[in-house]
Design a protein that fits this description.
The protein is of the alpha/beta class. The chain contains 9 helices and 13 strands. Bound molecules: threonylcarbamoyladenylate (TXA) and magnesium ion (MG).
Length: 283
Amino acid sequence: MIGNDIKYAAELLLAGEVVAIPTETVYGLAADACNTTAVAQIFAIKNRPAYNPLIVHVPSVHEIMPLVQNLPEAAALLLERFSPGPLTVLLPRNSKIPDIVTAGLPNVAVRIPNHPVALSLLRTAGIPLAAPSANPFGYISPTAAHHVEHMLGDKIKYILDGGRCAAGIESTIIGFPDGVPTMYREGALARSAIEQVIGPVVAHNAARPQAPGMLARHYQPHTPVWLTARPSEVIASLTGKSVGLITYNSYSTLLEKTRQILLCTESNFSEAAHNLYAAMHQM
Ligand code: TXA
Ligand code: MG
């Protein structure tokens, strides 16, 4: 069921249920981060492998402190500048966070979402919420309540509607292995903005074991997708198939307009990001 009842969503979460929630990046599939049984349900509903850890959501920096051993200086600076916002930081966890949330890793991923409904829910429930994106494992993230309904509606009791996600892509994940600011996932917060606050951020080495989520196949729709600078060649190779085109900011002459979705009207990466997953869902 889709609805707007924050109090009801909080009651469900406190009772150990899983609830889909809006954030400014993508919708999350939330449960009480300190309730092992509740968190296990997230993995079951998403069909997510246990080696892939979850992000813990809290309403302010104040609520991060009980979950971690310390807050590195660079993390504190970033949180002060960009929270609430599409930033996730990896911090040394303490024993309050169960193993299932971090997949046994020494760090916990935390973020303060910049969405009034998410923040109000976090304050009403008064517990940290573990929440991956609310899609089946490997599939496209949802950026509207009806995307969640379509993918997982039969598996969850409640989808808290917060409208369309403003950012439309996931949060940027920064970790600090050996004190070195490191990019674990590019996302809605630009690397350049982060570097203005803490200086150079190194690229994450995919061979490191701390990043189990960086799989070769990810965000994968069921419909075949080509990423191409030569759409005419791809379309010519697909005779007899039903084909649509997602373009950046102008219609192509290759297909009728009703088979095309523009990501933005002028030239604006934020607008394109806002529309990207929605366009893929629509296709
Ligand atoms: O924007 C977002 O971050 C959304 C919203 C709902 O907050 N959440 C999200 O969660 O994208 P998810 O689970 O779809 O992606 C989280 C990524 C995964 O690739 C996971 O492996 C990584 O974060 N991650 C989580 N905890 C980690 C940890 N302790 N160490 C390393 N990577 C971690
Ligand atoms: Mg995801």
